[in-house]
Amino acid sequence: MSGKNRIILAIVLLVLVIIIGVVGYMSIENYSLMESFYMSVITITTVGFGEVKPLSPAGKGFTTFLILIGFVSLAFMGRAIVELFFERIWNISFKLKNMRSKISKLKEHYIVCGYGRVGKGSVEYLLNAGVEFVIIEHSHEQCLELQKENYLFIEGDASRENILLNAKIKNAKGLLALLNNDPDNLFLVLTARELNPTLNIISRAEDPMSEKKIIRAGADKVITPYINTGKQIANMVLNENDDAFFSSEFNELTKIVPQWIDIKTGSDMLGKTIAVVAEEMNRIVYGLRRVGRDFIFPDENIVLKNADKLLVLDDETIDKNKTVVNSKELKKLVIVDDNPIILHLYARLFQKNGFCPITATNGEEGFDLIKQEKPVAAVIDYMLPVLSGIELCSQIRKDKELNNIKLILFTGDKEEETNKRALQAGADEVVIKSPDAQEIINTVIDILNN
Predict the structure, then answer these.
(1) Cβ atoms of 292 and 161 closer than 8 Å
(2) Which of 152, 198, 264, 364 has its CA 20 to 30 A from that of 374?
(3) Which DSSP symbol is given to 179?
(4) Domain that holds residue 47
(5) Mind listing the pLDDT tens digit for each residue in 226-236?
C-alpha cells in the first residue's frame, strides 16, 4: 500500500473511532450529540480534561476501550505521515542516484544544453528517433518538469567544464548548444570543443552576427531559428511558383585563438576599467574570471584587480606559416590536419603546454613546412589531401636532415594493419583519435622526454 493510501486509511479509522465514541456515549450515558462528540475527542486525544458528567461504571469501561482504540488509530496515522515523508525523500534520493548511474553509463549519446522552446522540440525529436540523450538545464523549475517526464538531466550551468564532464561529454556523439543567449552558447562551444575534439556540435544563434564567431569557436553548424524559418517559408512560396532555388553557403573559416590574459601585480592593466583595456588592446573582452567565477561580456566599467583574468579571441586566417606563439624559446611543433577546427584546437592546447605550434592543411604543405622549420616533432593526421599521413611520414624519413624529428600519426582508423603501415613508414607513435584532447599532448611530451 502506498503512503498516500495509508494516510487515507488512517483518517478513515480515526473518523470511525470518533463515530463509535459518539454513539457509545449517547447510548450509555445519554449525552447529547455535542457532548458525546466533545467527550470522544478529548478521550481519544488524551488531553486530560474532565468528564462532561460523572461516568457510570459502564461508561468508564467504554471510555477505557475508546482510549485504547483511539491511541492505536492516532499512532497508525502518525506512522503513516512519517513514512510518507521519508518515503518521498528516499524516492527522490533514489531516483537521483539511479539517474546519475544511468548517465555515467551513456555512450554515443547526445547532450542537449538548454530546455527552452527549441530544446523541447529537439528533445522530442531525439526521443522519437530512439537515441540516448541527457539534458543540462540551469532552471530548477524546468528540472522539476524534466523529472516528471523521467528524462535524464543534470541541473547546472552547461558552460562549466565539470557539468559537461558529468554529462559524459568525452563519450558523447553530439551536443546541441541551445542556451538563451549567444555569448553563453559561444562559451559552451569553446569548452565543449576543448573537452571533446571529435564531438559534433550544433549551436543556436539569435543574432546572425554571432554565427561566424560560434563556428570559429568550434561549432560544426549554427542554426539561426528565425532566419531559417524565414528561408523555409520563402522557399515554400517559391516552390509554389516553380521559382525555388538552392544555395550553398561557404563560410571562410578563420582560426580563433581564445586567450586568457592574467592581470598580475605590476601589470599596467591594474586599476583600469575593462572598456579602457579593451580599447588599448583593440580587442573585444568576452569574459572576466574573478575569484573562480566567470562573467560573460562583463560590464565595461568594472575596474580590474590583481589575479583577474580576461578572455579575448584573436581571429586569424589559417596560414601554414603563421605560428600561434612567436617565441624562439619554445619548441617548434608542426601540426598537419585539414580540419580547421581540430587544427586551431590542438594549436592552442600545444601552446598551453609550452610548444610553438605551426600548422599546415595538407601533406605537401606539411612536408615543406617541416623541411623549412625542422621542428622537434610533427603531429600528422592520417587522412590528408595531396599526401596521406603515411605517405608524408615516409617522405620525411627519406630525408636524412629530418631523421631526428619525432612523428606522431593521428588517426581514427583502429585497424592493426594501419598501425603497422604507419610504423613501417617511419612514425614513432600512432594515436587513435578520441575525445580526450590531452592524450595526443601527453604522447608528444612522453616521446620527447624519452
Answers:
(1) no
(2) 198
(3) -
(4) 3-100
(5) 555 555 544 44
